[in-house]
Design goal:
This is Extracellular protein. This protein is mainly β. The chain folds into four domains: 147 residues, Immunoglobulin-like; 329 residues, Sandwich (Jelly Rolls); 140 residues, Immunoglobulin-like; 91 residues, Immunoglobulin-like, CATH 2.60.40. 2% of the residues lie in helices and 41% in strands. It is elongated. The N terminus is likely disordered.
Length: 761
């Protein structure tokens, strides 16, 4: 008895205690900005794709009421605004009409703030890796200069979703404060602590500052905050920088001249300063903010610090990569002690913004919400003809090579599922896709992408992924199959191509690597079957023909054929008039075809060194028996609780196929044995076992090799049989629970063995 194949696959049984929460979904009615503002209209008309918030995931902060007898204007006529000017509106771009847009400011002397809604599970969790990706827009309104900017803020202020910088008299701080930094509104102030306590407390901010506040003269200091940027490095007036708004160390006291009484003003200490020539250009710019805690991502303890990375201009609105010189990025260590967290690791996050005498349109769009879903999209390209992965700028790919583009989605967490994912994959130049699949390793399901998606040389392949990604099913793999350009008389470039994945709680994207297709003027063709079955002691002739793509005439004597069988080289030979280049035969004798499975490869080289493509064929002598498609991961039904002696059915369709190309009368059997099931997190062993119930109702345990399928061929044709096709919910491989098992994800292994004979009974 010969064991031809043995395969090992993971199986999963999932038992969950399910709690269903019924949440009221509601929305907030908001007003738009001045529709007469052409720049504002331009911003909405050119909106990139972002998330849509129909369930109030963000909160427009409620500022405290205007204090009794509070002034309308400052002594110099500066206006005060006691209202939050932030609004949430919709994109007017037909291509992104469902995108939610936050407008923070759109006029002079305004303050705006929008915060995450804790009640909807929207927060920034310092104990986990978190990513916030967004688009921001600073619109030139045609005035003298723009101002003042906006800030991304993490905070643990006791005012929660209503936090805003307030002066000592209760006025929302506009101008250089950006709604988050403290108020330098008292030119007799001796202590930076007085400014710090007017800022948003227990916070960290990353500012996008569009107006340089640099007045320092005694006659210029009006007690209205005009000097924070007076000591900024570099030559650019606009910048990105970070800091702790509620720390007195952020504010540096300066004395203006030698007046009596003395006049004081404060500059600001900027961390991680990056000067930007022009933030305000009426274009959308992408920003990615990434947090990596110092501790393990699985820890529930608040970390003492971590690495914060921000990147500005790291993606173009069409998804392509910008010039590297235009990307501004930096990483730094962030001390979490400034947040004054006690037993929790969660922060409010959002944006604040303000204007003064000058203004601009400040808008933003979110692609991800850190606590909802974090997922990564990556790509890989495989040359199926050469059976190797293609590397960046690879130049050893050839015309008409079969290739597969893999788009891998990896769900990392956190509190939401990722559903309704629309995948749009641009087709690279000089690549022709012909088919595709979407597969889910956790469920074992594979779906064909409809064939009409590949008709008429589409510029992109677009499809909605059929299953959601979540804690139990974390990976999806999209495979697009096709081939490189068939004819390449000169070296061809296959450029990077963008792919986007837009779901309900996350929008992410990736780009494929570029590579080159080598020029090939001489092509080898053969219509011989890819797999051919022959009898014992039978010779084979493989027909083939050559073609020059530039019209050069074929001269048979200039052509040499090189071939191999199972990687063993055969003698080369030249073509001639009796075996011409326009249609020749590669003759293989039965002595050369000495194995049951013979992999034949051959190619041709002309007298100038031009090499053709390699053609590969498989010749089976007497046929073979082997596993066909086998589900890599097999699941059982999710149960709320299990009872003693309860039998749990399989989930989805299990696929275990056997392909037999041998002669009539050949037989095979499949045996299976299984390990115990354990919870990978708790290491708790499942009280029960995998069993096999045959059609008569007989139950056998899979703790040892057990024959579960067998077959004898009744003809000479190649047969493909599924050993599970006749299983129903009450027979086949099932899971037996001996007791009430605890909730968890239990996994183990099944070993399949294919034997080229029937089991002896």
């Amino acid at each position: 008895m010969n064991i031809f194949y043995r395969k090992r696959f993971l199986i999963f049984a999932i038992f969950l205690c399910i709690l269903i929460l019924f949440l009221d979904i509601y929305s907030t009615k908001v007003a738009g900005a001045d529709t007469g503002d052409s720049d504002y209209e331009h911003a909405l008309a050119t909106t990139p794709k972002g998330l849509n918030w129909d369930n109030n995931n963000f909160v427009i902060a409620k500022f405290p009421p205007k204090p009794v007898n509070a002034p309308i204007d400052s002594p110099s006529g500066k206006k005060y605004s006691y209202d939050n000017n932030a609004t949430i509106v919709r994109s007017k771009n037909p291509a992104t009409k469902d995108t939610s847009v936050i407008s923070l400011t759109n006029g002079t002397y305004q303050v705006g703030a929008v915060w995450s809604n804790f009640e909807k599970g929207n927060y920034f969790d310092l104990s986990h890796e978190q990513i916030a990706s967004m688009w921001i827009y600073f619109g030139n309104t045609g005035g003298e200069v723009p101002g003042d900017g906006m800030a991304f803020v993490l905070q643990n202020d006791k005012r929660k979703e209503n936090a805003i910088a307030l002066s000592s008299t209760g006025i929302p701080v506009n101008g250089q404060s950006l709604g988050v930094w403290g108020a330098d509104w008292d030119k007799t102030n001796l202590y930076p602590e007085n400014i710090a306590k007017t800022a948003i407390q227990n916070s960290w901010a990353m500012e996008f500052d569009t107006y340089k506040n640099l007045l320092t003269g005694a006659n210029e200091i009006s007690g209205e905050g005009v000097s924070f940027d007076a000591n900024n490095p570099g030559t650019y007036s606009q910048h990105i920088a970070t800091g702790f708004p509620a720390s007195y160390k952020t504010y540096v006291k300066q004395k203006a001249g030698n007046t009596n009484p003395p006049i004081y003003y404060y500059t600001m200490h900027h961390d991680n300063f990056i000067g930007i020539e022009n933030l305000v250009d009426s274009n959308w710019h992408h920003v990615t903010i990434k947090w990596s805690p110092d501790i393990s991502v699985n820890s529930q303890t608040t970390p003492t610090g971590g690495t914060m990375t921000y990147s500005y201009n790291d993606k173009n609105p069409d998804g392509s990569m910008p010039d590297a010189n235009n990307i501004k990025s930096t990483s730094f260590h962030l001390d979490t002690a400034n947040f004054n967290l006690q037993s929790d690791s969660k922060l409010y996050w959002g944006f604040t913004g303000s204007t003064g005498k000058y203004y601009e349109n400040n808008l933003m769009i979110f692609e991800s919400i850190p606590s909802f879903v974090d997922a990564e999209a990556t790509t890989k390209i495989h040359d199926n003809t050469q059976n190797r992965d293609i590397e960046k700028n690879d130049s050893q790919v050839y015309p008409n090579d079969d290739v597969s583009y893999f788009y891998n989605l990896d769900y990392k967490g956190w509190t939401k599922t990722w559903n309704g994912i629309n995948a749009k994959m641009n087709v690279p130049k000089n690549i022709h896709f012909t088919s595709g699949t979407v597969s889910y390793p956790a469920t074992g399901n594979t779906y064909q992408i409809p064939s009409d998606k590949f008709l008429n040389a589409p510029a992109s392949i677009e499809t909605v992924l059929p299953e959601q990604l979540n804690q139990d099913s974390r990976k999806a793999i999209v495979e697009l199959k096709g081939h490189t350009e068939t004819i390449a008389t000169e070296k061809l470039n296959v450029p990077s191509a963008h792919a986007s994945f837009e779901g309900d709680n996350l929008i992410t994207d990736t780009n494929t690597i570029p590579f080159f297709i080598q020029a090939r003027n001489l092509t080898l063709k053969s219509n011989f079957p890819d797999i051919k079955k022959i009898g014992q002691h039978e010779d084979v002739d493989i027909p083939a023909e050559l073609e020059y793509h530039d019209g050069t005439s074929l001269v048979s004597s200039n052509m040499t054929v090189y071939s191999s069988i199972n990687d063993k080289n055969l003698p080369s030979f030249k073509l001639n008039d009796s075996n011409p280049a326009t249609g020749f035969m590669l003759h293989l004798s039965s002595d050369q075809l000495s194995s049951k499975i013979n992999i034949v490869k051959f190619y041709v080289v002309d007298n100038l060194g031009n090499k053709t493509n390699v053609i590969t064929k498989q010749i089976n002598v007497g046929g073979t028996v082997q596993f066909g498609s086998v589900s890599p991961q097999l699941n059982f039904k999710t149960m709320n609780l299990t009872s003693p002696n309860e039998i749990i059915p399989r989930m989805n369709n299990w696929q275990i196929d056997v392909i037999d190309s041998r002669e009539k009368g050949s037989s095979w059997s499949v045996q299976a044995n299984a390990s115990k099931l354990t919870d990978s997190k708790t290491h708790q062993e499942f009280d029960g076992a995998l069993i096999y119930r045959d059609p008569t109702g007989k139950v056998s345990y899979l703790n040892n090799d057990l024959t579960i399928a067998e077959n004898s061929k009744d003809n000479d044709d190649t047969q493909e049989k599924s050993i599970t096709e006749n299983w129903n919910s009450q027979d086949g491989i099932l899971l037996l629970s001996n007791s009430q098992n605890k909730a968890g994800n239990y996994s183990g292994e099944i070993n399949w063995s294919l034997i080229d004979s029937l089991n002896n009974k």
